[in-house]
Amino acid sequence: MRILLIGDIVGKPGQRIVVQTLKALRAREQIDLVVANAENALDGSGLSPSIYKKLIGASVDCITLGDHIYRRNEICSVLNSESNIVKPANYPPKAPGKNWAVVTAASGEQVAVFSLLGRVFMKPVDCPFQAAERVLAEIPAEVKIRVLDFHAEATSDKQLMGRMLAGRVSAVVGTHTHVTTADEQILPGGTAFQCDLGMTGPHESILGRRIDRVMETTITFQPTQFDVATGDVQLHGSLVDIDPATGQATAIRRLVIKQAEADALAMQTAAQPAEPMN
Ligand SMILES: [Fe+2]
Ligand SMILES: [Fe+2]
């Protein structure tokens, strides 16, 4: 079975390219399940209930977040009530949200998804490595396909998490830096690994924000509004192939969809006959 993991969706441009392409992409790439990081989906920071619904409606199966998870209070009810969205599992136990989710792929397999936050240049949280052990002990043994989004700054921590969980989970992929890394590989024991999936949003930017604004504030210290940029929108993610019998990954491939290809995929979706109502 094949899972698409999508890197940080940033603002309206990020939402738009996901909505525009995902259904056609699922058919083209024979994708059974989609997991997306949506911590920047709302104007570059946070997530709202309506954008959550929009992404699920666009055929995202499970949502992970990160350090911007609670930027908007309204998302807390979704985090508490919905079964296909997780908080970082090394946040305090009383923080809104679930530590892991089990979602069903189009191919019928159950897939466990969890997320952890790094501690280097980030808000102090519990040890992500010990939290990973806690989560793995909780996930039912029969759920063999297990995916971790490690939302962290340091590539060393991400490599360490990959090595610690090699052979014990299907995939350890990173998010948060918004920069796609070229280190995708299958670790010993069948764990797909990549330091960072990259960013789904405007690439003519500083990590998704307007270049001129970030430049001005950085150089002059004059405060400005770091609005989401608009140019060169791209979808970045990776496709992971997994043997459902063992939960072991057999392949990982980077996927980049630029605007021209996104437009072509959107036309394919529009050309498809509407699904019957019953
Ligand atoms: Fe992010
Ligand atoms: Fe982040």
Detailed description of the structure:
- With 278 residues, the protein is an alpha/beta fold.
- Helix content is 29%, strand content 26%.
- The protein is built from 7 helices and 12 strands.
- The chain has helices at 11-29, 49-57, 75-81, 128-138, 155-165, 211-220, 259-271; strands spanning 2-6, 33-37, 62-64, 100-104, 110-117, 145-151, 171-175, 185-187, 191-194, 201-204, 231-243, 248-258.
- Strands 1, 2, 3, 10, 11 and 12 form a 6-stranded mixed beta sheet that branches.
- The longest helix has 19 residues, at 11-29.
- The radius of gyration is 18 Å and the shape is globular.
- The mean pLDDT is 96.
- The chain binds fe (ii) ion (2 copies).
Brief summary of the model shown:
The chain is α/β, with parallel strands linked by helices. 29% of the residues lie in helices and 26% in strands. The strands form two sheets. Strands 1, 2, 3, 10, 11 and 12 form a six-stranded mixed beta sheet that branches. A six-stranded mixed beta sheet has the order 4-5-6-7-9-8, covered by helices on one side.
